[in-house]
Design a protein that fits this description.
Low-confidence stretches: none
Oligomer: single chain
Helix content: under 10%
Mean pLDDT: 86
Structural class: mainly beta
Distance between the termini: 28 Å
Radius of gyration: 14 Å
Shape: globular
Number of helices: 0
Strand content: 35-45%
Number of strands: 7
């Protein structure tokens, strides 16, 4: 099990990049909503097909608290503010004071009905 620090940028209000997670390639797309003063993330497969869209970047929580689909990474996406407080990732704090991590899982179990 490994904790991966994701390469987050804050110099652009919207961007995306490809990343290998759990032996598969995914596209992570980020955008800053100035009106809401929030960063959002989209998760796509390597062909840009939508998996999960509009995930609000919140600190100190698993960003995928809903059940995971089999076509998405099985680990956890976690954002932490360096103060340890549950503060929003402001426009220029994301990637600096607020880091985004991916926590790989060692075992994945699926319930078969």
């Amino acid at each position: 099990m490994a904790l991966v620090v994701l390469p987050i940028r804050n110099d652009l209000p919207a961007y995306k990049f490809k990343l290998d997670l759990d032996s598969k390639t995914y596209v992570l797309s980020f955008r800053y909503n100035g009106r809401m003063a929030r960063w959002f993330m989209d998760l796509l497969d390597e062909s840009d097909n939508q998996i999960r869209m509009g995930i609000k970047i919140l600190t100190n929580v698993n960003l995928f608290t809903i059940l995971k689909k089999t076509n998405m990474p099985q680990g956890d996406f976690l954002a932490f503010h360096e103060t340890g407080l549950e503060l929003n990732a402001e426009r220029l704090e994301f990637g600096e004071e607020v880091k985004l991590y991916y926590n790989e899982v060692e075992w994945v179990f699926y319930l078969i009905e």
